[in-house]
Amino acid sequence: MGRVKTDIEIAHEATMEHIVAIGEKAGIPESGLETYGRHKAKISHSFTKQIEGNEEGKLILVTAISPTVAGEGKTTTTIALGDGLNRSGHKTMTCIREASLGPCFGMKGGAAGGGYAQVVPMEDFNLHFTGDFHAITSANNLLASMIDNHIHWKNELNLDVRRISWRRVMDLNDRALRSITCALGGAANGFPREAGFDITAASEVMAVLCLSVSLEELERRLGNMVIGQTRDRELVRARDLGIESAMTVLLKDAFMPNLVQSLENNPVLVHGGPFANIAHGCNSLVATRSALKLSDYVVTEAGFGADLGAEKFYNIKCRIGGLKPAATVLVATARALKLHGGIEKTKLDEENVRGLCNGLDNLGRHIRNLGQFGVPIVVAINRFTSDTDAEVASIVDYCRSFGVEAIECTHWESGSEGTIELSRKVVELADSGVSQFRHLYDDHQKLWEKVETIALGLYGADEIVANQKVRDQFKQLEAQGLGHLPVCIAKTQYSFSTDPDLKGAPDHHVVPIREVRLSAGAGFVVVLCGDIMTMPGLPREPAALDIRLNDEGVIEGLT
What we know:
Blueprint: H1 7-12, H2 19-26, E1 33-35, E2 41-43, H3 45-50, E3 58-64, H4 74-87, E4 92-96, H5 101-105, E5 113-114, E6 117-120, H6 122-126, H7 132-153, E7 159-164, E8 168-170, E9 180-182, E10 193-195, E11 197-199, H8 204-210, H9 215-224, E12 226-230, E13 235-237, H10 244-251, E14 258-262, E15 267-270, H11 285-294, E16 297-301, H12 306-321, E17 327-332, H13 334-340, H14 353-371, E18 377-382, H15 389-400, E19 406-409, H16 411-414, H17 420-431, H18 447-457, E20 461-465, H19 468-479, E21 487-490, E22 509-519, E23 524-529, E24 548-549, E25 555-556
Parallel strand pairs: 3-16, 3-17, 4-15, 4-16, 8-11, 17-18, 18-19, 20-22, 21-23
Antiparallel strand pairs: 1-2, 2-14, 5-6, 6-14, 7-12, 9-10, 12-13, 14-15, 22-23, 24-25
């Protein structure tokens, strides 16, 4: 067996079509595109308004079991399923998130898929792309600078410098900036205070952009964002500084969805990239809704495992956007299930049916959890070359006990051809009309009850706990008329619990609530559980060490 080609080598061999031709496939005329070279474009504001009256296609969500270091291939499956549906003659568009530079140069790598199921141009996608992240960074930091400038001059809003909640952001991993003291150096530099940086994907500006469907709504949501409190504990919002219009100007182009293509020259919309912990972890509403107006089927994904990504997709994005998914694809791998079953990562290439079966509880809980939302499910087994028939058969048999079909997929190696059977099943489920989509909780429930519903109903916890300060925060939010908002729980993605080392399907555990934050512009309440950081650090051996230009000026080392 010869050397396996890297993702970037496969991407370099791709024959890409001009983006105008890709637009034509999707039903977007050249006049509806703002091109960025030959292979990238944005869909114009005028065109997205023009198609608002179109009938909508069916929405397919791709999610996964709890992630592990072995990788599940959720994005790869999403792209390949879109290609498979197009290969089968169904007009389909795929919608995914944009890549952050932090993970790209850190530990996770890029986000363009892998093998023969990728989005291209891969280098552009994973690096600066069309500048959306930079625009969001600038808008976020414009607000931050306006806050400090307001305090420096007169502080007419009576902002309490001890209770400013707005943080600066950058699109890189830098642990040294998590907590800082700013405005040092004398009176001319402002009033010294404690502050900090988050990664751009964690900015509320990112969440606001991804949950708005018009520039007017974007500006309104930006103005609603809470930046801090007065000494009398009154909320102060961005609109109180009069800055929301200038922020909207910075975001005008970033708000347009990006059109690119898969390796098989099918249209893909890539737009937005909110953290799947601190935010809702889905691509933008404007991209998803545009795709639904242009296609028979739309394939999209949600970040991390189904307990985080799918839950937030259903309870936040679908609630705010009025979306009604028709089918769900749950991605699983034998390797990840063996890790959940206690097998060491150095032994994943060895057949171990018993170890795999020990980890199947993780898959089972995700199946049961997804069933609570009323959307039909199919399991996609993303097969690796080291997986054995016996291991795959064990997964198929286990899923059958839930009345759910599990389908082997080989798209990393063979592209859309490896998802033909999955594509047929997805169409069958989506067209069956059996989806009875429902949210897990109602708007009128107490915030504490909403968190409890998720923790007990999805995570397998016995209870949620919090100190009196946190409980008072919940009550205060409800007293301020914000109790109707959905909750966005931030916890580790590696476990149903708040302990990342607790694999499988733990139960009888406790979910501790550490902090509550209001994302008033995005329209949800963030509930931080356990140790969650909004500014990641770099690993001991960052991926940046392997990224370089070769002698021909071609990028190497991106994954």
